[in-house]
Amino acid sequence: MASSTVPSSQPNRPPRPNLVFRQLRGPRSPAEFAAAVRRAAREIGERVSCDARYVHRVEAGEIRCPNYAYERVFLHMFPGRTLTDLGFAPRSAVRGRRARDVGDTPPAHTGNPANATPETSVADEPYDTQDRYDTYDTHDHEESDVLRRAFMTGGGATVAAASLGPLGFASDASAAQRAVRRAGASDAGALEEAVRRIRLLDDRHGADGLYRRAAAPLRAAYALLDAGATRQRTADRLYAGAGELAISVGWLAHDSGRFDDARSHYAEALATARVTGDAGLEAHAFCNTAFLARDAGRPREAVRAAQAAQRVARSLGSPRLMSLLALREAGGWAGLADRSGCEQALARAQAYFERGPSEADPEWMSFYGEAELEGLEAQCWSTLGDWPRAARHARRAAELQDPHFTRNIALYTAELADDLARGGLPDEAAQAGMRVLDLLTEVQSSRVQTMLAGTSRVLLPHRRAAGVSAFLDRHASFPRAV
Question: Segment Disordered: which positions (predicted)?
Fold first, then answer.
């Protein structure tokens, strides 16, 4: 792993962990604490792009003193404390400048606080797969430095063991906390089962009702990592399981429209993969990052993340994984209105898919079959404005999908309805929309509801048609996800 390009006066001295800051985080996961930092920033009119990686770096001691924007936020979160009370070094020790008096306040906010001079920065390529970490927010250079250590270790850790049981959804992890001995194989197995359980429930019911319930297992997973493991094999399983769980919880946030939370969870997973050298986990994290970037309106980032995932995944020996990653790239090219780039990526996706499944296919790819291939291609053509072609693929996706994947059937059918509506077939679109409304009695997905709302707006000029009117009336009365 590459070291920081910023020169240090003591290059051979490792950073000293900020144990005070770690204690202040308490039982919250790094992603949850990062979300609290962002909320606190909004309360005082600041703008920081704090995510789990930033929290990791503070706790690992890599950020000895935060920039002024973060300083204002931290002092707001912990009133009555100074930076040194929070475990940071005096600013004079970091910058070689005169320390401010204890009673001084940080400089007044002017312009974009995220453009304040960073304590560390590197001009990293955001999706270099060799030894660097993504820069998710180019306005906050503090988060673009190398993350050497993603997790703290040490005694005194606690874990909500019950929340990692087979059902794995304790409403309040703190209610089941207990002092932890070093984690063993049974803990790793419980963590892996929690990941499977979340994926199973998401397949059938969608993300909206699961996201907050899944936070408890994630907190417990990080407590297990803090506790350490009895054997290296167990430690490897714990790190892999925690990374996959972070991706699963990130997907629940992603699918329910909580993009900032999703980004932070995916960053946690990527950090875990890089620290442990887990290429499979790294490819998965990049895969989901590409999908999120596409949905968040950052198509160029989607292309780069998908390409980074493909570089990592080539050594894994799974054509199906390469096929999915090529589709993620195609989605980015479509968002850039690059039809040629999209078609080339789609051709690669099809070629890889036709090689068939293999023993090297990751467990998390159980959702990826011909139906998903068709559905993702439909989304590409829809983005490019080729509605008839998009509708053909969306229809085929819905027809091919295994009934177990109720959420995906709803998604593909919603895609079909939208493509038909935009392609000038309002009656057929209304019929497809009715099928989606039927499925939404079982599925809670903000993504599907958002798509259906867009279709309704497109169909409004055709309200006089009997089928369209019935759909619009039923859609208007349908309860929205909370």
Answer: 1-22, 96-138
Q: Which pLDDT does position 437 carry in this prediction?
A: 93
The tokens describing 85, both together, are 């009370």
pLDDT at 96: 41
Residue 328 CA to residue 323 CA, distance in Å, equals: 9
For residue 208, the model assigns a pLDDT of 47
Per the structure, the count of domains in the chain is 4
Distance CA 282, CA 311 (A): 10
pLDDT of residue 435: 94
pLDDT at 183: 62
189 and 264 inside one domain: yes
What DSSP state is assigned to residue 284?
A: H
Amino acid at 259: F
Per the structure, the complete domain to which residue 43 belongs is given by 1-92
* 29 and 65 both lie in a single domain: yes
Point out the domain boundary residue: 71, 92, 113. 92
Check whether residue 347 and residue 364 sit in a common domain.
yes
Residue 288 token pair? 């989901």
3-state secondary structure 104-164: CCCCCCCCCHHHCCCCCCCCCCCCCCCCCCCCCCCCCHHHHCCCCCCCCCCCCCEEEHHHH
Looking at residue 249, its pLDDT comes to 85
Residues 270 and 329 in one domain: no
Closest alpha carbon to 433 in 475, 383, 461, 370: 475
Q: What is the pLDDT of residue 204?
A: 52
The predicted pLDDT at position 196 comes to 72
Claim to verify: residue 4 and residue 60 sit in the same structural domain:
yes
* pLDDT for the residue numbered 260: 87
Cβ proximity of 398 and 412 under 8 Å: yes
What is the distance between the alpha carbons of residues 243 and 216, in angstroms, rounded to a whole number?
15
First to last CA, the chain: 43
Indicate whether 284 and 273 sit together in one domain.
no
Domain presence at residue 49: yes
User: Which residues, given as ranges, of the chain have pLDDT below 50?
Assistant: 1-12, 95-180, 203, 205-208, 482
**What is residue 206's three-state secondary structure?**
coil
pLDDT of amino acid 420: 96
Q: Which of 215, 209, 169 is nearest to 444 (CA)?
A: 209
Q: Is residue 118 part of a domain?
A: no
Which tens digits make up the pLDDT trace of 429-448? 999 999 999 988 887 777 88
Spell out the residues 6+ positions from residue 90 whose beta carbon is closer than 8 angstroms to its own: 65, 83, 84, 99
Residues 422 and 358 in one domain: no
User: 158-160 and 177-179: which strand pairing?
Assistant: antiparallel
pLDDT at 119: 34
Note whether residue 130 is domain-resident. Answer: no
**Dmax of the chain from CA atoms?**
76
From start to end of 265-385, where are the E strands?
A: none
Is residue 286 domain-shared with residue 273, that is, in the same domain? no
